[in-house]
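Bug report (template v2)

What were you trying to do?
Predict the complex of my protein with alpha-D-glucopyranose.

What happened?
Run completed; filing so the output is reviewed.

Input:
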Amino acid sequence: MPAWLKDAVFYEIYPQSFYDTNADGIGDFQGIIEKLDYIKGLGCNALWINPCFDSPFKDAGYDVRDYMMAAPRYGTNEDLFRLFREAHARGIHVLLDLVPGHTSEEHKWFLKSGEAERNEYSDRYIWTDHWIKGIPGRPYIGGEFERNGVYMLNFFKCQPALNYGWKEPTEAWQQGIDDPGPRATREAIKEVMRFWLSHGCDGFRVDMAESLVKGDDDKRTGTCAVWRDLFSVKKEFPEAAFVAEWGHPELAITGAGFDMDFYLDHAGNGYNTLMRDYETAGGDHSYFLKDGGGDITRFLDDFLPRYEASKDHGFISFITCNHDTPRPSWTLSDRERKLAFAMIFTMPGVPFLYYGDEIGMRYCEELRTKEGGYTRTGSRTPMQWDESANKGFSTGRAEDLYLPVDSRENAPSVAAQEILKDSLLNTVREILALRHAEPGLQADTSFEVLHAIQGDPLFIYKRGDLTIAVNPSGEEKSSPAGILHGPGAEVLFRIGEASCKDDGAVCLGPQSFAILR
Ligand code: GLC
Ligand code: CA
């Protein structure tokens, strides 16, 4: 894995909504360039930009029509190359979003594959061999093309599945992983990677990475094998980094060869129990909810085995949120999020901050769907920069904006939080600055649980020479004696109240967090 990941903190940008520099109401590459200093000042030194390629935008760009062409609404390829250069000049790495599992139904490969005569693209997608023969258990479409068959979908109707083969073909129309059609798909995707990497891109976030191979691939041995082949590109670009949208680091990292895997918001998993327990039945017992009665052992039971199984090969990536997930401000207060982010940013692995979470932007659930967003749309609204019109996102007309700006009276902005010492924004800055300064907070520094007991809100862990303690509850909590080796520990950072007792116990006030040495 590339060495630069050890100190990397990512910032996810939904380009539509970040910063509009030509007043057409939608964010653009120039807007990202103009905000690079802000991102750097926040403490993020890497970006993931959601798909910014030519697309009909029926799934916000996850329906790619041309992998090698920037979407004109954001700018040109040259503008994107310039963004890479401007980012690099500030020590910022840039990941693009690779969507290898499907294309737009308007992609030229797909249009060719629907032709009746066999051609170079006939096997690029998954087609049955008769117009009335469906694909059991999988979504498919018939009746649209001259070709005598139906084709498989990967997600929405606009997203036909690319053909990486079947684990164990059982029908004549299904191909094996190493048959010529699937092999050609792999080579085509490698060309896409090479194209952007050779122009200065630093790697990819990979969409739906776990489901390339179809059929009985429950253990993902087929998909892992395909990834190991795709990653032959890493030999040509050893500094390139890849993060999977997978959520199973023991497979994505250890099996498939990804450098990082997201700790995604999956109902009931460890990440979910920290911040988003509202998805499971029985009420919200999120650990960071002050009165949730949360339990850190639910998190650790899930996290520790995944961490142990992947830590020698790559990094788990905690997220504050992403473009598919309700913003954390939906259920957590400002203080609760400060504590949650403090923990996320001091865990091992490579964290990702979703744009706007650093100021506590709202999940605008009242919005109507935009570009296939549905319930995700509320997390995709324009960044709130200042108190000027459109909260500084765009000088265009409010009615022309990609999505409305959150116009509540107390909607946060960067400018307003900049001048408040204790704002979420400044808290995030302070933690990230410490993360970069302290070897104990690098991605690969050791992690050890010092105190985690069922029913006790106090959680204490060790990173290198640092001891980190968190108490999300409303009451003061003290650890047993001897957590710290004697008195006199230095508090490097705290939220709320923190002290060390002579017997080596750590004492945290209500809703408090501390990094000690
Ligand atoms: C991933 C993306 C999501 C998209 C889907 C289909 O889950 O994060 O936004 O709709 O894949 O590409
Ligand atoms: Ca624009």
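What did the reviewer find?
Residues 20, 22, 24, 26, 28 surround calcium ion (ligand 2) (CB under 6 Å). The CA atoms of residues 19 and 35 lie 8 Å apart.
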